[in-house]
Design goal:
alpha+beta, six-stranded antiparallel sheet, 18 helices, 31 strands, 30% helix, elongated
């Protein structure tokens, strides 16, 4: 059954105060009887429901009083006499509204009340559609006639959904042209209650609004405080918070408001250092005026603002107390501020109120309010009300200030954990993106890295810590540091992931023992080493997606890399796989958030990734942008990091290799060959030191190692010297005593080289050194 929307009370209609509600069907039988009707007439619902309504009327012709309304099929008012259960007559003013049933039959909603002794307050009643329909249509005659009210609609829907009556008092701003002073606004109380039949079906909704236009400062102040608590501080954005306060203050409290902030509110630093009463610099955060020709609220904290030493603003900052004064020619500080004096005279400002914006012991600025259109000066009651509002706004501003400070700390932490600038490298050209799911804090648990290794190689890393926010970022920082340290030891990808896995398990055990929850509950990682000389990439992964390889002449490939377990689980070994790469190939390492960001499945994400990598000859930054547009939604649900690298190769002309016989006499021959090659590379300046390094390393290999001995020089960003043998004994750097006949060779090598180290292979070990090129020395 639907209820036609009806607005009540034309100017000529009798006014009623509704206390009784009944529903009469098309046959004249009562189908609903409210508690208010029982209280008014004495009949219980059981005594009247399914009985004729005319039996209650005392008129000689019981149907005559309602016949005109029945024939018109329209809502209207009537004055009837009803028989009370005790026997006496009760005069009622009734409002009758037609209800259209689903079968086309017309029922009637009857709202009645006893005729009051005096002039009744203005009352409006209206109906709405039952729950389960979307066509709720209500006219709130407490505002502009005929205009739907979102407040009434919201409460009507809430009543229909919950099935419970609701009573509300809302604040209605003054109509156009009003001054906005307290006590002049309309605050109609509204009542909503559902109407049900015997079967519990919803027939409709009854809504009553009582129009009130009175000067009740206490209630109006409570309404304003309630509105302020809902309007101010809806976000943790400082600029928006001060704008929200300005919108509450004007025009309800003042004709103009200005909020000026100290640096403590905008930068998070401590209070300013100044002498009491001395000038201090503030920054205008917002101002709002009732005059349309004056600027509105400011978008962001603006230019510095200074007040004269004797002004209320400086006095307020010095004492922390509000100040109120009348403005006029006798105001002592105004002559020292001609700009403000001109504006005050122009608009006729007559009263001035300044309050400190202070919360949790920190003064963050001042609030200035002016009146000129409102003829009433600020009173003590006004000041108390505004102090309460400013105190609430100050807490919101302080919350925004603290959030900004913590947000900056989080960003600083993230910046310190991620590489600010990836180092240039001859082996690869790289580009990257980092997009945390928590966009507000800007931190997450994903990371990427590019780590230079020995022999012109480079390591590419992408990892993903489970979780989001600061906790995940801190865990990520630990893992990134561990990967860098292990990478410096020149371990193979599978060995490195095994050591990182042990670290994650140990950290989780330590945190669990400390009852703090796991510090690193789990993570995934892919670690790849690219060799520009061998033109291969060795990759191992721990629960991480396989890298994508975009070839120049073939489709995008996802190589078959053995899938190790996520870090922190243990139990299964990690394995590496070697991938041959041609020059110019693009390798993409990414977290799973990239291919799972869309609402589609992972296969759709893979297809879109192939599309983004389909043209590896494009600039890498352009490829990254395409990946973001093709794969990511506006608000990704997971942290996302990806790294794309274009491979380069080292020309064979820049690499020289020799097989060295295990004969001490071969040292001189190799030294001469090295000198000749340095001459070809125009590196004669490095000949002396390089010959010493080669002599020491080759001699040690001949004396202490076994198997084939090989020497290799690489002319890259540095001059790299490598000596490989079949031994697995690690050389040790020590300081030789004066009586020792040997032991100084490796110490000498360490003094001549910029860097040196040892890496182990399946067939032995390689000792390497790096020397800066002559133009870098």
């Amino acid at each position: 059954m639907g209820v036609n929307g009806v607005s009540g009370g034309s100017p000529g209609d009798p006014l009623i105060t509704t206390t009784a509600v009944a529903v009469v069907d098309a046959d004249g039988l009562i189908t609903y009887w409210s508690q208010g009707a029982q209280d008014l007439l004495g009949y219980s619902a059981a005594a009247v429901v399914r009985h004729p309504a005319r039996a209650l009327l005392r008129s000689r012709d019981p149907t005559a009083a309602m016949s005109r309304l029945h024939r018109s099929d329209r809502a209207g008012n009537a004055l009837v006499t009803v028989r009370h259960r005790a026997g006496h007559a009760v005069r009622l003013t009734v409002r009758v509204c037609p209800l259209l049933a689903a079968d086309g039959r017309r029922d009637w909603l009857v709202l009645g009340a006893g005729v009051p002794a005096g002039t009744p307050p203005e009352t409006h009643a209206t109906g709405t559609a039952p729950a389960g329909t979307d066509a709720i249509r209500i006219t709130d005659t407490g505002t502009d006639a005929g205009r739907p009210s979102p407040v009434v609609t919201r409460h009507a829907r809430r009543t229909l959904v919950s099935g419970q009556p609701q009573v509300t008092v809302t604040h209605t701003p003054p109509r156009h042209g009003r001054t906005g002073r307290l006590g002049r606004e309309r605050t109609p109380p509204r009542s909503f209650f559902p109407l049900h039949d015997d079967a519990g079906r919803t027939l409709g909704l009854c809504y009553a609004a009582r129009g009130v236009t009175v000067q009740d400062p206490t209630r109006e102040r409570l309404v304003l405080l309630n509105a302020a608590s809902e309007h101010i501080g809806t976000t943790l954005d400082l600029d928006r918070t001060v704008r929200e306060f300005a919108e509450v203050a004007v025009p309800q409290l003042a004709d103009f408001v200005a909020i000026d902030l100290l640096d403590v509110a905008t930068t998070g630093k401590g209070p300013p250092t100044r002498s009491p009463g001395g000038p201090v610099t503030l920054r205008r955060a917002a101002h709002l005026s009732i005059r349309p020709d004056l600027p509105k609220v400011i978008a962001e904290v603006g230019e510095p603002i200074r007040y004269p030493p004797g002004s209320l603003q400086n006095r307020c900052l010095a004492t922390g107390e509000p100040s109120r004064e009348a403005l006029g020619p006798g105001t002592p500080w105004l002559p020292d501020d001609p700009v403000r004096w001109t504006g005050i005279n122009r608009f006729g400002v007559h009263t001035h109120l300044v309050l400190p914006l202070r919360a949790r012991g920190v003064t963050m600025g001042v609030v200035t309010l002016l009146r000129w259109e409102n003829p009433d000066p600020f009173t003590e009651d006004d000041q108390l009300l505004i102090e309460d509002l400013v105190a609430r706004a100050a807490v919101c501003v302080d919350n925004a200030r603290r959030f900004a400070r913590e947000h900056q700390a989080a960003l600083t932490l993230q910046t310190s954990l991620l590489p600010p600038n990836l180092p240039p490298h001859n082996a690869v050209e790289v580009a990257h993106r980092y997009l945390p799911a928590d966009a507000e804090s800007g931190v997450g648990g994903d990371w990427f890295d590019v780590i230079p290794l020995s022999s012109a190689r480079v390591a590419l890393v992408v990892g993903d810590v489970i979780g989001h926010g600061l906790h995940a970022a801190a865990s990520m920082g630990r893992l990134r540091a561990a990967v860098q340290t292990l990478a410096d030891l020149d371990q193979s990808p599978d060995e490195l992931l095994a050591h990182v896995n042990d670290l994650v398990m140990r950290l989780s055990d330590e945190a669990e023992a400390a009852a703090e929850g796991p510090a690193a509950a789990g993570a995934t990682c892919v670690y790849a080493i690219y060799d520009p000389i061998a033109r291969t990439m060795v990759v191992a992964r721990a629960g991480h997606p396989t890298p994508a390889v975009a070839h120049l002449t073939e489709p995008v490939e996802f190589p078959d890399i053995p899938a190790g377990p996520p870090l922190g689980l243990g139990g299964l070994p990690f394995e590496s796989a070697e991938i041959p790469l041609e020059e110019g190939s693009v390798v993409a390492l990414y977290t799973d958030g990239l291919i799972q960001a869309s609402d589609q499945d992972v296969d759709v994400g893979i297809e879109r990734l192939c599309f983004a990598l389909a043209h590896p000859d494009r600039p890498l930054e352009e490829i990254c942008d395409i990946m973001v547009r093709a794969l990511l939604s506006d608000r990704p649900r997971d942290d996302i990091a990806f790294l794309v690298a274009r491979t380069r190769v080292l020309s064979p002309d820049l690499v020289a290799s020799w097989h060295v016989p295990a004969d001490p006499s071969a040292v001189r021959v190799v030294r001469d060959d090295v000198s000749d090659r340095l001459s070809q590379w125009n590196l004669e300046e490095l000949a002396f030191t390089t010959e010493l390094i080669v002599s020491e390393l080759v001699t040690n290999a001949i004396r202490h190692a076994h198997g084939p001995i090989n020497l290799r020089l690489i002319h890259e960003r540095t001059l790299i010297c490598e000596v490989s043998d079949g031994g697995h004994t690690s050389p040790h750097l020590r300081r030789a005593r004066s009586t020792d006949e040997g032991g100084r060779g490796l110490f000498l090598v360490a003094q001549l080289a910029q860097r040196w180290g040892t890496r182990y292979t399946g067939s032995g070990k390689t000792i390497w050194t790096e020397q800066p090129l002559p133009d870098e020395i």
